[in-house]
Amino acid sequence: MNTNESMNRAAKTAQFKFGLIAPVIQGLFPDASRTAFYKRIAARPIEFPDGSVREISFKTLEKWVSAYQRGGIDALMPAERSDKGTTRVLPDTAIEEIYRLKKEFPRLNATQIHSQLVRDGFIPATVNVCAVQRFIKRNDLKSARNPNIRDRKAFEEDAFGRMWQADYPDVSFIPIFSAA
């Protein structure tokens, strides 16, 4: 997504938020108190400009008013996360270990690396394997770096005759004939 699109989306969101809190800012809310107004607005799900329908807390509306009073309409724009693009669940020691494992064993997949990290105590078992998969994909660690190494699929060997496969009939289906 380019910067203009994201800025337009952020501006629409800020305008939408301001539209919800404008009666409080201007002192024109019809309810007995600000809190009563907030609770009435938050009582039903709200459709946002991006098309999503969400329930918000009356406290959220209070925070929006406070943010607007401190910083104007710009304060209502959604902020990008400061840690965007980084992982929060993988500690630095686990990241170093992932790099080491991929360098030493380039064919290890994310599931195997996750198991190794849990077994060696780099991450708790509660960390999902998807976090390791995302990290590997985002850092382009997915493929082997040696161009001389050809990727092999499951049930494929590097030389002829290393693997054999045979078919044989299931003996439970062989009819038994009697000489009677």
What tags apply to this protein structure?
2 domains; mainly alpha; two-stranded antiparallel sheet; 180 residues; 2 strands
SSE topology sketch:
Layout: H1 3-26, H2 34-42, E1 46-47, E2 53-54, H3 58-71, H4 92-104, H5 110-119, H6 129-138
Antiparallel strand pairs: 1-2
Polypeptide structure, described:
The protein is mainly α and 180 residues long. It has two domains: 3-76, no CATH class; 81-150, no CATH class. Helices cover 44% and strands 2% of the residues. The protein contains six helices and two strands; from the N terminus they run ααββαααα. The chain has helices spanning 3-26, 34-42, 58-71, 92-104, 110-119, 129-138; strands at 46-47, 53-54. The protein has a two-stranded antiparallel sheet with strand order 1-2. Helix 5 (110-119) packs across helix 6 (129-138). The chain is elongated and about 95 Å long.
